[in-house]
Design a protein that fits this description.
six-stranded mixed β-sheet, disordered N terminus, mainly beta, five-stranded antiparallel β-sheet
Length: 141
């Protein structure tokens, strides 16, 4: 019973959004019971000049057009066995649209939607983060 309460509480702290075009989908959460704050975004259709190859250690689905921010670092690509940050209406998911010029704050991370992409950065110290867009990504370190 306690596990069900914990998972419901964690699920209610999730922030799930997409860009107005629907091409960039993100999910994140503030820190929760020892789990650090995070944001993860994927570009559904991209024209990135280079994609990271699947690491030999990944025996699940490899999603190269994913950027994640957690523990003060950005990671590129995602080895996963779930749908990740995808917004899929058929699942009944409460994924909102983050309008251009709008921001959402997820714990210490702020994500802003612009016509040029979605930028997610820490709001303190060095502002580590990323810009993710159809054509490219930029890492801020």
């Amino acid at each position: 019973m306690l596990a069900a309460v914990v998972s419901v509480a964690f699920a209610s702290s999730l922030v799930h959004f997409r860009s107005p075009s629907g091409n960039i989908n993100c999910i994140g959460s503030a820190a929760y019971q020892g789990t650090p704050a995070f944001v993860e975004c994927v570009v559904r259709r991209n024209s990135w000049p280079r994609l990271r190859p699947r690491p030999a250690s990944c025996d699940l689905d490899w999603v190269p057009a994913t950027l994640a921010l957690s523990r003060g670092r950005v990671s590129i690509g995602s080895c996963r066995g779930d749908i990740g940050p995808l917004c899929l209406p058929s699942t009944g998911d409460r994924c909102s649209t983050l309008g251009y010029g709008r921001s959402v704050t997820v714990g210490p991370i702020r994500c802003t939607s612009q016509t040029t992409g979605v930028t997610c950065r820490y709001t303190f110290s060095r502002h580590v983060g990323f810009l993710i867009a159809r054509e490219r990504y930029v890492l801020y370190r």
